[in-house]
Amino acid sequence: MNPDEGNLLNISPELLAKLRDAAQEDNRTPDELADEALARYLEERSWQRLYAYGEERARSLGLTEKDVPRLIAEYRQRNQQRHER
Predict the structure, then answer these.
(1) Tag placement on the chain: N or C end, fewer CB within 10 Å?
(2) Domain map of the chain by residue range?
């Protein structure tokens, strides 16, 4: 079986020992900690990609941080006008 398929992970002995120690200290299983760590990593990675996309879009539109308050105000004004109709 390919290590990249299924539930098989190759974790260094040093990291595995630290994981087991941390799990024991927290009264959790190593699997629970590893699952949580991986979920956090993937969530952070997703946010980083979204942030990079936003930066690229802003750059392509010629927007800077100084434009943000104005854009928010314009958006809120348009939104309020829609609700008043």
Answers:
(1) C
(2) 13-84
